[in-house]
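One chain is below:
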Amino acid sequence: MTLGNRDLIFVTGPARSGTLMLQGLICNHPAVARPLAECFYLTGLIHAYEHARRIFDIHTYDYFADRGALMLFHRDRVLQPYLDHLAEAAGPGLVVQKSPELLVLARELAELFPGAPIIVTVRDLRDIVASQATRMAAKGEKIDGEAVCRQALDGLGRVAAVAGLLPDQVTFVRYEALAHRPERTLGRAFRALGLAPPDRPALAWDHQRDPQRNESWSILDGRPPAPTSVGRHTESEPALVRTAEARARELEATTAVPGLWEADDPRPDVFGIRRTADGTLVREPVGDAS
């Protein structure tokens, strides 16, 4: 068995924005294979391609006739054997590859896997920082709120730009919508993926993770989405919240990604981004029932 681009679903977003939860919910669909651990092996292969492409005029040119030849070699000779193995490892059905690291590789992902859907989770940036702070405090680490915010926003800005060029490939799902309206939001996400929503979608999810082997494991893993996970920043240090708000305002002013610092944002729960004739990025709801 081999996998083509239409057999893959990529899930990404800032760390602590609900990528694991969304992956688990998507994998509950009968047409989708079991959930796999984060695709660090795949991101390593894509990083190698990004590096070779970036330094093409300095070093890589001596190995390939042009950048197109490099892309074809990497896609057909490097990535395809991985996909052949992935089909065996995951079992029957569409295969979800999930990692926040894919966020900064969106351009390469779209180039190497044209047509494969990319699902991006967005969450109130204040809650992302609060979640990171809680996790790092439990490990005895000091959180750099500025660095966390910048990392999340830089990645989202890059995906927004790619989505404007590839409106049929990238879909955004808001964490708050999953928490407050899980069945409706998940139904829209399934339709955006070209999947018929089940009559009663399963909202509990199970990655069968061993907390002794995976430091990202949480006692919340597997629980259905709940509104109580929204607004966690109200219990955080005010300085962290102010930093998150300031950085989110900056991105809101320059991209079409909504809901980064307002949990009650009235804009679309599931949406794509389209670039207009004058270059403006605009949001468009997707996945509505026809």
